[in-house]
Write a structure and sequence with these properties.
116 residues, mainly alpha, elongated, 5 helices, single chain
């Protein structure tokens, strides 16, 4: 550890930079990114497709599907459904994959702090 790093860590405290660089934390970040980025890209493509279709394919979006229900209205409501589905999927993923790892890291840090 360099002199500047030892100066910033309080006596008996936690070196958060070392924690961030630890293999356990890097694995946690990798798991998080591997779930979040693909869903973010997919949702943004879906969202911009909706916006572009609304702007440039008005006849398509105005087609009636059933009664006064149009393709555009279904796509717009689909944005809400997609948002809730992504949120529920992320919560389930975090509960199963991220929370156990973060809990282990937290417990290690609390043990280190208690023993200091």
């Amino acid at each position: 550890m360099s002199q500047t790093q030892t100066d910033t860590v309080p006596p008996g405290g936690i070196d958060y930079i070392a924690v961030e660089e630890s293999p356990q934390f890097q694995t946690l970040k990798r798991k998080h990114r591997s779930f979040v980025w693909p869903l973010t890209v997919a949702f943004l493509v879906w969202y911009f497709a909706y916006v572009l279709l609304s702007s440039f394919a008005r006849d398509f979006m105005a087609q009636h599907v059933w009664g006064d229900l149009t393709v555009g209205l279904l796509f717009g409501l689909g944005q809400f459904v997609t948002t809730f589905a992504i949120t529920m999927a992320y919560v389930g993923y975090a509960n199963r994959k991220l929370d156990p790892d973060s809990q282990r890291i937290r417990e290690e840090l609390e043990q280190h702090e208690a023993s200091a």
